[in-house]
Structure formats: C-alpha cells, structure tokens
User: Fold this.
Amino acid sequence: MVNRKSFVISKQTERGRADKILSSLSELNKSRSSIANLIKSGCVRCNGQKIRPSTILEPGDEIDFLELNDFQPAPVSRHCVQVPVIFENSDILVIDKPYGLVTHPGAGKHQETLVDIVLKMRPEIEGVGVEGRWGIVHRLDKDTSGVMVVAKTDSAHKLLSSQFKEHGIHRAYRAIVRGNPGSNSGTINYPIGRDSKDRKKMSTRPLKGRIAESHWRLLECFQGFSLLEIRPKTGRTHQIRAHLAAVNMPVLGDRVYGAPTQKQIRLDKTLAKLLNVISRQALHAAELGISLDSQKETLFFSSDLPKDMLDALETLGALG
Assistant:
C-alpha cells in the first residue's frame, strides 16, 4: 500500500538541509536516517523535482512525500567493500583503514573513498560535519593504514574536531624506516609547509610553514633499517613522512619523501627485496586515544600491524 502526503514548508521554518527539516516534522514522525533513505529511494520531491538529503529547503517549498508502508532501507550489498570495525556506539565508529584507500574525495578524478564506503555501511552519518567529508574529523594518507575514528553525530563531530585542532588526541604510529638512529629516542621540530616547487608535496624548509613536532622511539633495529614508534604532537599534512625523511630515516616504500634512486635499489639487495614485499609506505596508525566527554577518561583503540609490514619485518629478521 502507498501513502501520499503533500505539504508546504511553513514560513516559520528556517532554511536548511532536507533530511534535517523533514525529520523535524511531527506529521512525518521519521528519523533523519529514515528520511535520508526515503529521499535516496526517490520517495520525496520538492517542487516536483527529485532531491538529495543535502538539498536546501526554503519556506514555501512544496513537498510531495510518497511512502510504501512496508518500506525498508535497501541493505548494503554483500559485495560492497567494507572496512573492519574496531568499535562502535551511538556517537562514533572506529575503523581499521586499509592502505590504498583515500579518506575523502579531493580535486581531480573521483575514486571510491573511505567516506563512500562508510556511508554505505552507515547511511545515517550523511549530514554529520562537512559535505563530501561526512563524519570525518581526521585523515590518513591513501597508503597509510590503521585506526581512524568517524563521528556519527554532530555533537561528537564538534567535540572530536576540537580535540584534533587543539592536539589533545593520543596518536601512535609504527614505521619501518631506512637507516638506524644514533639513539633510542628523539624529537623532530621542523616546520611543515607547502613545497615551493611542488604544491602536492610538503617541505620541512618551506617559505611559509607551521610549527610541527614529532617524537620517535626505536622499537627494533636491523642492519640498515629500523622499526620506530612515532607520536606526533601536531598533525600537519604528511608530517611524519616529511619529518623522518628530513633526519635521514625515510619511511620504507615512500615514493615522495626520501625515495631511493634506481641506482641505490640496484646496489642494495636488502632494499630491493623489501620493495618487492611491500608496495607502499610502511606507515601504520597503531593507536588512537580520544575523549567523548571532557569529564571522562580517554578511550584507547589500537590496530595490529598489517600483513605487508609484518612480512617486511620477517624479511629483515631473516636477513640478520
């Protein structure tokens, strides 16, 4: 059976997103996620036109609402790529991001992103935060793997965004680097800014940069290579990769910062073997600590090293 409802957005209603305005109407009695699903299924029209959940409605707009009594949101396809969920509650979704996946859409050609996949898994996140980056409060580079948090509500998005902005987040990364440090720990304090010759690249010697600080600790030492733990105090773009390259410990597999020449690869058999084992930068977000309430303790989440990094460490161990 089909229900049809038509009404006009009242003059007292402030302009805003369709899913937000329609879910606030008592005559519809629907949650925001339900409204979003109905809109996506083509059951809602504004002034005779199909709309999106993010379409801005104005006072005086004519709404046609078509609903099947037995309507159910379309299930996520079993073939849909998903990301492992580490933790979830009503406020946040903590996931284990695989490498090779862009966090959110950027300029240029569009490819499936983490945002696309998360929205298929949890459609209700649409509308939280910034359009195109729904739920995102921080990001990992395409070829960096590991733990990430996604906000499911506006309040969580605001709180977490503030914590990241104020550097109040606990973060720890693991990286396999080329080179051996002369001590067991250290701090890197180079500013980070856009490279004057390549706008897609960051530099530790920029014409105009921002303060950046990274603390590192040696976890394991091999001949010519090391496993480090890095705790960035700030969160600049490409900070860890640029900082480590600046102190002659570039991340293994990084093609941008401190990449080896073809001659170096030919002369270094260990490096050549490792680059056949791992095809991306050996950088992993291993720990994340956040707070959902300023009065509560920090929640800690972790992600184990992925197989390619474990294989690289096994290769190094076997070589002695």
Remarks:
- The first helix runs from residue 18 to 23.
- The chain has eight helices and 17 strands.
- The radius of gyration is 24 Å.
- Residues 68-80 have pLDDT under 50 and may be disordered.
